[in-house]
Amino acid sequence: MSNEPSISQDYLLTKQYKNDQNLRARIRLHELFSTNTYDWHRWVFDRFVLPEQARVLEIGCGPGELWLRNLARIPAGWEITLSDFSPGMLEQAQDNLQQSDHPFAYAQIDAQAIPHANGYFDAVIANHMLYHVPDRAKALAEMRRVLKPGGRFYAATNGKDHMREIKDLVLQFDPDAGGLWKSFATGSFRLENGSALIAQSFDHVTLHIYEDGLKVTKAEPLVDYVLSTPVGMAFDAEKVSRFTAFVQQQIDERGALHITKATGLFEAF
What is the predicted pLDDT for the residue at 158? Predict the structure, then answer.
């Protein structure tokens, strides 16, 4: 059964993920102000349970950040295919990893129709992307199909409280922005419902929680984060200026903005 995402596939391809600019703005906020000093991508890599010789497929690889942060840790025997629905993201991943000694294969793939044989991969990774897939049940069945018996599936996502203070801040500044913010929501696949969705295709599901938060002391990176969302994309220059001043005032009054993060990684087989 199809379950439509809140953001259209055309919007994702032509605006939100045409390249890595919007994603980079969101990554930067976390890099600058996360309270957990252990890198998220290294933490994810730590969870992998794979043999020294393995075929690995990442669906929705984005700019290849997971592998870029773990280049020295990749076993020589891993055959890694990086895929994305967005050609722009795939091109950015190739650029980012072109100096790597480890060979990567690249492919534009729709998660709902993976062009590989049954039981081909030892691991399939789908980090922060399943909430964008129109038919998640079909995509999960496809990921299970291409896994070997006992192969591992890994999927990262956020919980319902993730970054809730930023939403509150935006709505305090502009109460009419609720509709656009809702279109950026990821409730279709999150920590609270992910286990049940994955269990439709996998027998064993475990959730690993990454403990973290944000302590934001500068307005500009937080403003850039909001500008990378459908809400911020609707702001004109005058509104951006007013919003920046508003955020800075909040930081000055409070000393810092404390932002909740609710993030984790599902492991299934």
Answer: 96
